[in-house]
Specification:
heterodimer, A: MetI-like fold, 82% helix, 0% strand, B: Rossmann fold, 10 strands
């Protein structure tokens, strides 16, 4: 059994390894800021204060929250529709044949094109952003959940079926626990995509949000502000990823742990 | 359905196969395909413990799946308790329990939660479920392992959990698809004895699919040998106890049929 000090050393080593790339990056940036104009590479101290400003000033923070809300609304919408489509595609070959190529086609359309379509099709800013968020993350959600449904263990499925469960019980006892790992992975992957798309969506027409604020910083030629607003989005993504990791740790505690890594 | 079994009093037919054939991968025009079961006719009576024996790929599992209502016959009629198990699938809730070749435990459920599975489908109250599951786990020597996840249990223990899961629902018909084939001989022997005792104690009808002659003779009070594709080559009722010589003779007879 490892002693407390060995465990502490191991943890510190892991933290150091995880943080090292960011420290190196920050150092390189800071050194560059000494020799280059401030409007190109601002000092990290400036960026830090701008970030603190945003986090402590309600009007600005609300803008950051608006973006987070748009990401979540879009992802929840895409997830709900994606789950429904995946179940339909799994049950019906005709639906699979029709929806599969359609979603593939949608995947090929750039986010910027959807922005243009949304401006033409919809009047309200929030409706436009919601549409863009849903339509850009929907194919990935659908395909990931469909893959999870198709990858369910046939043995376990037959075993559960042999008890003649109702549809709801089948879903609760067998389907949901089987596909949950893939659902969480889908959320992780799509969160990154959604956070990139939301900025593009907010650049056009929004009166608040990280995308809108970035546009303001660009017009003011304020690099520290641009970085500080970008950091808001990164912080949101990191916090959400951490929450997903927490859910994974709790939900998958049944998994066997191998002492040897891959 | 009640009918007279040859040489005995009237008994209820639990499982009825009538000219059943099952063809997989049949073309749309009805040609080709793989014939897994061919014109099979068989009656299994309530309270019988039948071992169905045959070589790998002889259609035993297909026959098993048709009894379980998981597959439909291509032609002919399968009835369990006088009903079609495929089209009246939900009617059999709580009537049939299955022990599979591998344990098929849900990895996200603890041992006791796995045993509770069938009871959950029957909408039994949580406290009653827990009490029944605990009783069966204890009976099968797994007291103290209730909260272990399947990955923490040995192969034998996992198969015991799956047997407990099957018995917990108190279904009158037990279907077993080579449940001990993945275990070592000593564990398998012990589990076979425990299983036979439990079936007798609880007055179940049991259909036991196997490819092992020794297992069929150890477990079955009636042995049905299938040729490929599933057709009856031998259907023999065995006495309660078989002498060594009788066992050897029966083993040799089955071996001859299987090697034909």
């Amino acid at each position: 059994m490892a002693s407390a000090s060995t465990v502490a050393t191991r943890i510190s080593k892991r933290v150091a390894i995880a943080v090292a790339p960011f420290i190196v990056l920050a150092l390189v940036w800071q050194i560059a800021s000494f020799g280059l104009p401030r409007y190109l590479v601002p000092s990290l101290v400036d960026v830090f204060w701008r970030t603190t400003d945003i986090l402590t000033d309600w009007t600005q923070f609300r803008s950051a929250l608006a973006t987070a809300g748009r990401i979540m609304a879009g992802m929840i919408g895409a997830f709900v529709i994606g789950v429904a489509l995946a179940f339909v595609m799994e049950r019906s070959r005709a639906a699979d044949k029709f929806l599969g190529p359609t979603l593939n086609f949608f995947q090929g359309i750039p986010a910027l094109s959807w922005v243009v379509f949304a401006i033409i099709w919809f009047k309200g800013v929030e409706t436009r952003i919601l549409f863009i968020m849903i339509i850009t993350t929907l194919p990935a959600f659908t395909f990931q959940i469909l893959g999870a449904l198709r990858g369910m263990s046939k043995d376990l499925l037959e075993m559960t079926l042999s008890f003649r469960p109702s549809r709801w019980k089948m879903f609760k006892v067998m389907i949901l626990p089987s596909i949950l790992p893939d659902i969480l992975t889908a959320w992780r992957v799509n969160l990154g995509n959604a956070s990139r798309v939301v900025v593009v969506a907010e650049l056009v027409g929004a009166t608040g949000g990280v995308g809108y604020e970035l546009l303001q910083q660009q017009q003011l030629f304020d690099m520290a502000g641009a970085l500080a607003w970008t950091l808001q989005l990164v912080i949101f993504v990191l916090v959400t990823q951490k929450i997903i990791s927490g859910i994974e740790t709790w939900a998958f505690k049944y998994r066997a742990q191998s002492e040897r890594a891959l | 359905m009640t009918m007279t079994e040859p040489g005995s009093e009237a008994r209820t037919v639990e499982i009825h196969f009538e000219n059943v054939s099952k063809v997989f991968g049949r073309d749309e025009d009805g040609g080709g395909g793989f014939r897994a079961v061919d014109d099979l006719t068989l009656d299994i009576y309530a309270g019988e413990m039948v071992a169905i024996l045959g070589k790998t790929g002889c259609g035993k599992s297909t026959m098993f799946n048709m009894i379980a209502g998981l597959q439909e016959p291509t032609t002919g009629r399968v009835e369990v308790k006088g009903r079609d198990p495929f089209s009246q699938f939900d009617w059999f809730r709580g009537q049939i329990a299955i022990v599979f070749q591998n344990d098929r435990l849900l990895p996200w459920r603890t041992a006791i939660e796995n045993v509770e599975l069938g009871l959950e489908m029957l909408d039994r109250p949580p406290a009653e479920r827990r009490e029944i599951a605990q009783r069966w786990l204890t009976k099968l020597g797994l007291a103290g392992h209730e909260n272990d996840y399947p990955h923490a249990l040995s192969g034998g223990m996992r198969q015991r959990v799956s047997i407990a899961r099957a018995f917990a629902t108190d279904a009158s018909l037990l279907l077993c698809d080579e449940p001990f084939s993945a275990l070592d001989e000593i564990t398998a022997n012990r589990l076979r004895d425990e299983f036979s005792a439990l079936v007798r104690e609880n007055g179940k009808t049991a259909v036991f699919i196997t490819h092992s002659i020794n297992e069929a003779l150890q477990i079955g009070r009636r042995v049905v040998v299938l040729r490929r594709p599933a057709r009856i080559a031998l259907d023999e009722r065995l006495p309660e106890t078989l002498s060594r010589d009788e066992q050897d003779a029966m083993r040799a007879r089955i071996q001859t049929i299987l090697s034909e």
